[in-house]
Design brief:
heterodimer, A: alpha/beta, Glutathione S-transferase Yfyf (Class Pi), Chain A, domain 2, Rossmann fold, four-stranded parallel beta sheet, 15 helices, B: mainly alpha
């Protein structure tokens, strides 16, 4: 397909002064990515972004597992808008893909069905006495990194290139479903040709892998992971993607949804344990990065300060390929340099079987 | 004919999600749930547009209603502008309001989600926090997660200085007044009433299934872990 198709779906992204909407999943599984994003915005890009202690969950996981009614979710999101208004901001920077989809959907619903906005305002006022202005601009935090990818490239300490061969690193980019499948116009490149991550990869020297199941869901499926009895759905859908991408021998994956990054990482562990199968060309798992980590590596940040030790698939083989000068022992240090021990070894990081999926070892 | 359809039409998601389905099946072609379960979202849309009360009630009592993962992959692909995912959200809401959800194995799981995610939102202000994803209940998270949770204060504090403390930053502790506001929002907007409906129907069903104490933790754990393997 046309490589410029993404340009059919461009959107306005505010240039500065953001109210930050935190992600439950990102802060839980990738707390260092939250910190890294704010560091990039403030230190590398010189932007004003407000992290409000009163901000809460948008209820998105509860909403999409159908235990929180739409009116309740709308009133909780209305409260975030009220906090933004009170703090003197009008641009929302939303870290979670589910939240981003939900905020977009709620604003569209309020436009289409004004009585739902009236109800949200009434519920919010009754419950909290708060009122709000709707944001002038909403962007996913990956949009903001994309928007500034050239500035980041100008400050690059490293690129997405294999320092041993000089070849671009091959990168699988995975876009969270709720980024643009609900409202294609809300995402850079829409739902068919999302460019938000591909644009970063190409700008920073990497090569994007196009593979058959590129747009398939990671397999979260809300209730299909939350409930233990349903997790077969989740691992089966991640496996479908992993099998599809493996023959292209990606150096790493990058995702703009924290849930996707976590599932594509953790299910590789489970598959290696259950089936003795790994997907990386080197016989181990394929590292899965958040885009904050990818940007941070380009900017020269320390991988352990960004929390990359919390990945189940080891990132060290990638760091070596990129020429990152890292301290192996610092991976196991907690607060104030305290040694906290190492996790148990796992098959996904020390493959000794006979078969790597799609590639004969 | 049409009672349930009229009730569904009170939900804006049904009005937005149902235009006119021509049964092409593109939604089923891209659906991750159809990939895994014996499941066809096309049939759901078709059932709703017939407006047949008996068929819609049967759907609300069935496992079929609970297979969708709400990824919304169906939405951008439908050539007629339908959104099966929205229709399913409206159906699931009505199924819980009317108590039909407890008549299926997958529907009964709602009590577990309500008590885990729902209560966490009301108590902590987040859908999840690290210790909620306990390694014992989440073996698939692997040894690194187990290591992280066992060292949570040391590790998260290195990455986010306000871990479970007041102030800004990732995984901070949310102040009591904010938590009270979230609870009041749930109260006035129908969130708590919905929780009570899930509890009441689950309690009734639990007793019917032989749990003398009703929807106890034992019943909830059963819904969380039981898989009849009759879904593929």
């Amino acid at each position: 397909m046309k490589r410029t198709s993404w340009r059919d779906y461009e959107k306005e992204i505010a240039d500065d002064h953001y109210y930050y909407a935190r992600s439950c999943i990102r802060q839980n599984f990738f707390p260092g990515s939250e910190t890294t994003f704010l560091r990039i915005m403030r230190e590398a890009l010189g932007k004003d972004i407000y992290d409000d202690p009163r901000h809460t969950s948008c209820t998105g996981i509860g909403y999409h597992s159908d235990i929180v009614p739409l009116d309740t979710t709308m009133a909780v999101v209305a409260r975030q808008f009220a906090l933004m208004t009170e703090a003197g901001y009008e641009n929302m920077a939303i870290s979670c893909i589910t939240s981003f989809g939900l905020y977009t959907e709620i604003l569209e619903t309020w436009h289409e069905f004004p009585e739902t906005e009236a109800r949200a305002r009434e519920n919010l006022f009754k419950a909290t006495g708060r009122e709000f202005k709707k944001p002038a601009n909403i962007a996913h935090t990956s949009d903001l990194v994309f928007h500034n990818r050239g500035v980041i490239a100008a400050q690059a300490q490293r690129t997405l290139v294999n320092v041993q061969t000089g070849a671009p690193l091959d990168v699988v980019e995975h876009i969270g479903c709720h980024y643009a499948k609900i409202f294609p116009k809300s995402g850079i490149g829409g739902s068919e040709f999302p460019y938000v991550l591909a644009g970063m990869v190409e700008q920073w020297g990497g090569r994007v892998v196009d593979y058959p199941e590129r747009r398939h869901c990671c397999g979260f499926g809300f209730r299909n992971y939350l409930v233990q009895a349903n997790r077969g759905f989740s691992i089966a859908n991640s496996r479908k993607k992993l099998e599809s991408m493996a023959p292209y021998r990606p150096d790493f994956m990058v995702a703009n949804c924290p849930g996707c990054a976590m599932f594509l990482d953790k299910w590789q562990y489970a598959i290696a344990e259950m089936e003795n199968v790994t997907y990386g060309a080197d016989g181990r798992g394929i590292p899965v990065l958040t885009y904050e980590e990818m940007a941070g590596l380009v900017l020269g940040y320390d991988p352990w300060d960004m929390g990359m030790q919390m990945h189940q698939v080891d990132v060290e083989p990638l760091l070596i390929r990129m020429g990152v000068d890292y301290d192996p022992s610092a991976r196991f240090l907690g607060r104030a340099g305290k040694f906290i021990g190492a996790p148990q070894a796992a098959a996904v990081n020390s493959f000794s079987g006979e078969r790597i999926y799609g590639i004969k070892s | 004919m049409g009672k349930y359809f009229d009730m569904l039409m009170e939900d804006v998601r049904l009005r937005e999600g149902l235009k006119a389905c021509m049964n092409c099946g593109v939604c089923t072609g891209v659906c991750p749930s159809a990939e895994f379960y014996d499941y066809d979202p096309r049939k759901i849309v078709n059932t709703i547009q017939t407006k047949d009360d008996a068929d819609i009630e049967a759907l609300m009592r069935s496992d079929t209603l609970w297979y969708c993962g709400e990824c919304m992959s169906c939405r951008p692909r439908c050539p007629r502008g339908n959104t099966p995912g929205y229709i399913i959200q409206a159906l699931r809401t009505l199924s819980q309001k009317l108590g039909f959800f407890v008549e299926s194995e997958k529907g009964r799981q709602q009590i577990a989600i309500k008590r885990v995610i729902g209560h966490h939102i009301l108590e902590k202000g987040y859908c999840i926090t690290p210790r909620l994803v306990s390694p014992a209940l989440h073996p698939e998270q692997g040894p690194v997660w187990k290591w992280a949770v066992e060292n949570d204060t040391d590790l998260w504090s290195r990455l986010s200085p306000n871990y479970m403390q007041p102030g800004a930053g990732a995984i901070r502790d949310i102040d009591r007044e904010t938590i009270a506001e979230i609870n009041r929002i749930f109260e006035v907007s129908g969130g708590k009433e919905f929780f009570e409906q899930i509890e009441a129907a689950s309690d009734r069903k639990a007793r019917e299934m032989g749990y003398a104490g009703g929807a106890t933790d034992e019943y909830m754990t059963h819904t969380f872990t039981h898989n009849s393997n009759n879904h593929q």
